[in-house]
Amino acid sequence: MRVILDTCVLYPTVLRKILLELASSGLFEPFWSEKIFEELLNGSKKVGTLGQTQVRSEIAILKSKWPESLVNPDGFDLSVLWLPDKNDRHVLASAISCKADFIITLNIKDFPNGILGEFGLKNFTPDAFVRALRKCNSVCITDVIRGVFKAVGQNYKTEITLSRLLNKTYLPSMARLIT
Predict the structure, then answer these.
(1) What is the rounded CA–CA span in Å between residue 84 and residue 53?
(2) Which of 49, 54, 96, 129 is at 20 to 30 A from 135, Cα to Cα?
């Protein structure tokens, strides 16, 4: 299954790590574009130079690990696409260009399934997507989430529970299912 990851699901570090570990496990193929990376880099400006350096590094890793995942919708005429937020048309164009099945985003209202359906696409929040994957891959999903928690949990200045981390990472139903 082919999936476009919107910028908003790549920026929270833990969410990105969970999604990409699931992709590494073979549960889906991730896709993105230079424009998505540009938005990611612009969003990191609010956390300063160190944050931007980290995001540049993360982008380089994504490009290296998944060289076939970079979509180039440059030849796509964005004016023929309509979305509630015209600034999101590049995400739809990327999804169409790579023949994606889904757009994973926190901004569901900006990607109405009625419009996406015209292109054979559907939107999912990360929580709904991971929950759907879990139906057929329960052990893998649980192992990935627990592995990411173990790796990142030690980076928090205060102790954090798996449930709290998942809630904070926009995965509330997974918090209820796993903990």
Answers:
(1) 32
(2) 96
